[in-house]
């Protein structure tokens, strides 16, 4: 049995239309999946929707719909967005599906039977907005709205029992929580006393959830339900073969705001269920709009759909992947989008294709010329192109996607400079065969760059390869065959005018 590279996104709350935060993580997961596929690995990519809990119930009520009607109405919008964004997920899980409900109930039963779940009366400060009990210190911080005193009988998961085990695990597995500074946050958190987790909500307060198998007056707390999607979506308790191929997940991609639930709740749940932990949890930063967090209440949520309609999906994917240093926040501005588009895509990448197809059209009847024998300058290009595979692989494996993209663009820029210096349009007048070698060298380097950009720009990088009549899988030198007729094409990335935009 061959282990698949298993990658997940968070499952998104269905309280509103999808926005750039959702789009970003899902594109990132798609880019990583395509990259691993291109390396010959089998992959499994899971995404989906978090449909239970108070937030969804409130959103449904505001629309005068039942929660299920509300979810059924919004779910297709996520699917449409994934289609527009060229997301090739393998499965899309909704937590209201029977396959998931079954797993949640048996996990609860298992934890209950092993003594990890107990009932207790609890009195404390409850934040309606956060849907959880908060500590005295949290209440005093003033960061929480809608706080009220609540006393109720609930069911608790013995999270504290696993505190030391989790601390040891994180210390023994340095790449379990990434990036490093987030790991340190979690270690700091775990060095304070850890309380048990309230995993139930009385039905009289919240009806929309999965009923506890051992107490029908309660539904399951939404996080205990949602986190289990990572195993219910990969065959746990339903398809042993699939689960063996997938689990442990290679990477859970999440945003920094949901790190505690993943690093602490999820890990201790897995300890209790005797399921191995995922290999790593990666928390990325937030997209900000002119330095303020994008949020619905601020009304500054950029709808990625609008950008795609205007500029195409590839530039949007490119921008989001190139501009965010994974682990840090990034600032979204229209100006930086246009600048990035013009410099990298129009001036560097797109322009190289235009120049090459123009010159090959004019001097070689549109057919790829013979490579001929290479000079030292040509060899430099060849060597840089040959080195790219190794460096891109290393960077992607360290989740330095922006650096990997920059490495490809550096090659593209180097080739544009090489063209300036070699001036094949002049050479062609006196030595056609030498001009052919220059054009072959540049076109082959462009082909290799396009192969490396395919995971990020699946449509337009493929278009470059189609124009060159070249295979997409071969990242080694020599994929381009002399005599191949280039296809006609329009400018792939026409420059955007900043004033007009
Ligand atoms: N349903 C939970 C996740 C459960 S996973 C078992 C949830 N959903 S969410 O829809 O509110 O958020 C999903 C993700 O979107 C989170 O990872 C969050 O960090 C991310 N983002 C929301 N806004 C964002 C930005 N502006 N920028 C980047 N990502 C942000 O939490």
The gist of it:
The protein has helices spanning 20-38, 54-62, 67-84, 98-113, 136-141, 163-172, 180-190, 222-227, 229-232, 240-246, 259-273, 304-311, 313-323, 334-364, 376-397, 401-422, 424-430, 432-453, 460-468, and strands spanning 5-13, 43-50, 91-94, 117-127, 132-134, 147-157, 177-178, 197-198, 200-202, 211-212, 215-220, 251-255, 281-284, 287-289, 292-293, 330-332. The protein is of the alpha/beta class and 501 residues long. It is elongated, with a radius of gyration of 26 Å.
Name some characteristics of this structure.
single chain, 501 residues, Isoleucyl-tRNA Synthetase, Domain 1, four-stranded antiparallel sheet, binds 5'-O-[(L-methionyl)-sulphamoyl]adenosine
- Tally of helical runs: 19
Oligomeric state, counting identical vs distinct chains: single chain
Strand order of the largest sheet: 3-2-1-12-13-7
The overall average pLDDT, rounded, is 94
CATH class of one domain: Mainly Alpha
Provide a descriptive summary of the structure in words.
- The chain has 501 residues and is an alpha/beta fold.
- The chain has a domain at 334-468: Isoleucyl-tRNA Synthetase, Domain 1.
- It is 50% helix and 16% strand.
- The radius of gyration is 26 Å and the shape is elongated.
- It starts with a strand and ends in a 33-residue tail after the last helix.
- The relative contact order is 0.11.
- The mean pLDDT is 94.
- Residues 10-13, 20-22, 24-25, 50, 226-227, 229, 254-255, 257-258, 286-287, 294 line the site of 5'-O-[(L-methionyl)-sulphamoyl]adenosine.
């Amino acid at each position: 049995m061959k282990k698949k590279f298993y990658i997940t996104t968070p499952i998104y709350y269905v309280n509103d239309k999808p926005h750039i935060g959702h789009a970003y993580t899902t594109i990132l997961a798609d880019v990583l999946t395509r990259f691993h596929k291109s390396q010959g690995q089998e992959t499994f990519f899971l995404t989906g929707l978090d449909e239970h809990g108070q937030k969804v119930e409130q959103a449904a009520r505001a629309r005068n719909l039942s929660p299920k009607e509300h979810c059924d109405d919004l779910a297709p919008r996520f699917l449409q967005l994934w289609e527009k964004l060229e997301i090739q997920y393998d499965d899309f899980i909704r937590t209201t599906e029977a396959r998931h409900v079954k797993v949640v109930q048996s996990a609860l039963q298992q934890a209950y039977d092993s003594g990890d779940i107990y009932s207790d009366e609890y009195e404390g400060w409850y934040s309606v907005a956060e849907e959880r009990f908060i500590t005295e210190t949290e209440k005093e911080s003033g960061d929480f709205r809608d706080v009220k005193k609540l006393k109720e009988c609930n069911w608790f998961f013995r999270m504290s029992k696993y505190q030391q085990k989790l601390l040891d695990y994180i210390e023994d597995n340095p790449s379990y929580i990434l990036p490093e500074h987030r790991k340190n946050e979690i270690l700091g958190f775990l060095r304070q006393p850890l309380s048990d987790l309230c995993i139930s909500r009385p039905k009289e307060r919240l009806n929309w959830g999965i009923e506890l198998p051992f107490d029908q007056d309660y539904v399951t707390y939404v996080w205990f339900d949602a986190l289990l999607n990572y195993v219910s979506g990969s065959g746990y308790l339903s398809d042993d073969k699939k689960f063996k191929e997938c689990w442990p997940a290679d990477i859970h991609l999440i945003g920094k705001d949901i790190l505690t639930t993943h690093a602490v709740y999820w890990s201790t749940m897995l300890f209790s269920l005797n399921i191995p932990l995922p290999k790593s949890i990666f928390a990325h930063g937030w997209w900000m709009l002119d330095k303020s967090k994008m949020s619905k209440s601020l009304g500054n949520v950029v709808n990625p759909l609008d950008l795609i309609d205007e500029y195409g999906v590839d530039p949007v994917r490119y921008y989001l992947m190139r501009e965010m240093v994974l682990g840090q926040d990034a600032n979204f501005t229209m100006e930086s989008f246009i600048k990035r588009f013009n410099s990298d895509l129009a001036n560097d990448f797109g322009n190289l294709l235009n120049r090459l197809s123009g010159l090959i059209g004019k001097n070689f009847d549109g057919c790829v010329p013979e490579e001929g024998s290479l000079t030292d300058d040509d060899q430099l290009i060849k060597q840089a192109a040959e080195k790219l595979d190794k460096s891109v692989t290393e960077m992607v494996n360290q989740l330095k996607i922006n650096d990997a993209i920059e490495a490809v663009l550096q090659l593209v820029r180097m080739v544009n400079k090489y063209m300036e210096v070699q001036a094949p349009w002049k050479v062609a007048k006196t030595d056609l065969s030498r001009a052919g070698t220059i054009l072959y060298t540049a076109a082959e380097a462009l082909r290799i760059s396009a192969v490396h950009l395919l995971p990020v720009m699946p449509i337009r990088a493929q278009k470059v390869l189609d124009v060159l009549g070249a295979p997409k899988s071969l990242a080694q030198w020599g994929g381009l065959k002399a005599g191949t007729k280039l296809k006609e094409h329009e400018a792939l990335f026409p420059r955007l005018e900043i004033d007009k935009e």
